[in-house]
Design goal:
There is one protein chain. The strands form 3 sheets. This protein has a 7-stranded parallel β-sheet with strand order 3-2-1-4-5-6-11, sandwiched between helices. It has a 3-stranded mixed β-sheet with strand order 7-10-12. About 40% of the residues lie in helices and about 20% in strands. The longest helix is centred in the first third of the chain and has 17 residues, at about 90-105. It starts with a strand and ends in a 12-residue tail after the last helix. By secondary structure, it is of the alpha/beta class. α3 packs across α5 (about 90-105) and α7 crosses α12 (about 290-295). The chain is globular. Bound molecules: NADP nicotinamide-adenine-dinucleotide phosphate.
């Protein structure tokens, strides 16, 4: 659309950024257009976004010049980092710093930075309730993002700091999906005790980001948090039971047991869930569904997400007797 405000979207072929690109393109009269950043403009996902109407450009968050080119002429940018691609908080901080610098270089009017808490403000390294990881972090994939907030402030870019939530879409991965125990019963395993886990359909993160851009710079300089619902493990298990028509239990393990599972990142995630459990009121209070719904009226509940996605769950068939 002529004269529309361009939003440069980092991670456009991925979960968060993809949701934002689709939200922008679904609202052609909204006054915004989507510029999708990707390392490979020829990939199937990039081509699909081009077909939907996005401008697709090459950029790598590890290359400042490529970010400057990709942000040039844009009104705003959505910035996200990819911890699970490299497992390095230092790299996330460097990438966020490059994005902030590129946004400042081109005088962008509004950036949304997809961030999370620096848990060390609540659990200092001296607090032995959870192990210190990688020498100076409690929850590396949260702490690095929280530490990187100051890069946007230092660059002087009007930034909305967007606290995201656990993607319910994680349940579509075999590691997290309801699994059969030795008794043949399905269960989800989380170390949350009886505390509530804020969760969200990942597509709604992008939709919320779009809603935030549409509100002008109302939230610039502020921390805002989003989730679809806050649910206990038992409540999620009950929702799975209803959706699947077979019993799904909540396997409540301790954070120590979760950390010991031994998959890449299990210690980081064990610490993360413990942080969410031990600081539950603060963590839930920072990401209210009411706020998310105010910027994204189509925000899904867990039940709605399940109805749409239950056929994609990798559930093993019950063994025949
Ligand atoms: N899983 C959860 O529950 C959860 C919850 C909250 C926050 N998070 C955070 O979400 C972040 C990941 O976001 P996501 O889930 O949207 O990612 P994602 O779906 O894994 O998407 C990653 C996309 O980023 C692009 N990418 C990767 N490395 C890049 C680079 N060097 N330069 C430019 N683009 C690059 C890739 O696109 P191309 O290949 O096209 O370049 C890819 O499509 C993580 O840091 C994680 O900690 C996750």
């Amino acid at each position: 659309m002529r004269d529309s405000k361009i939003i440069a979207v980092v991670g456009a072929t991925g979960a968060q950024g993809g949701g934002l690109v689709r939200a922008i393109l679904a609202d052609p009269a909204g006054g915004f257009s989507a510029r999708a950043l990707t390392r490979d403009v020829n990939s199937a996902k990039a081509q699909q976004l081009a077909k939907l109407g996005a401008e697709v450009v090459t950029a790598d968050v590890d290359n400042l010049d490529s970010l400057k080119r990709a942000f040039h002429g844009a009104y705003g940018a959505f910035c996200v980092t990819f911890f699970w691609g490299h497992f390095s908080p230092e790299k996330e901080i460097a990438e966020a710093t490059s994005m902030a610098q590129a946004a400042a270089y081109d005088g962008l009017q509004h950036v949304i930075w997809s961030t999370l808490e620096d848990t060390r403000k609540y659990v200092p390294l001296s607090d032995n309730r959870m192990p210190t990881l990688m020498g100076k972090y409690k929850v590396p994939h949260l702490d690095g993002k929280g530490e990187a907030d100051k890069a946007f402030t230092a660059a002087g870019v009007p930034t909305t700091f967007l606290l995201t939530s656990f993607y319910w879409d994680n349940f579509l991965q075999s590691g997290m999906a309801p699994k059969r125990g030795p008794d043949g019963m399905l269960a989800i395993t989380l170390p949350m005790g009886d505390k509530k886990l804020p969760g969200i359909a990942v597509e709604d993160i992008g939709r919320c980001a779009y809603g935030i851009f549409k509100r002008g710079r109302e939230f610039a300089g502020k921390i805002v948090g989003i989730s679809g619902e806050h649910l206990t493990g038992a409540q999620m298990a009950a929702a799975f039971t209803k959706a699947l028509g077979q019993e799904v239990r909540y396997n409540n393990v301790s954070p120590e047991v979760y950390r010991s599972f031994g998959f890449p990142g299990s210690e980081d995630l064990g610490n993360m869930f413990q942080f969410k459990r031990d600081f539950n009121e603060i963590f839930c209070g920072a990401r209210l569904p009411d706020f998310a719904r105010s910027v994204n009226p189509s925000l899904q509940t867990f039940e709605q997400w399940l109805a749409q996605n239950k056929h994609r769950l990798p559930i093993e068939q019950a063994a025949r007797a």
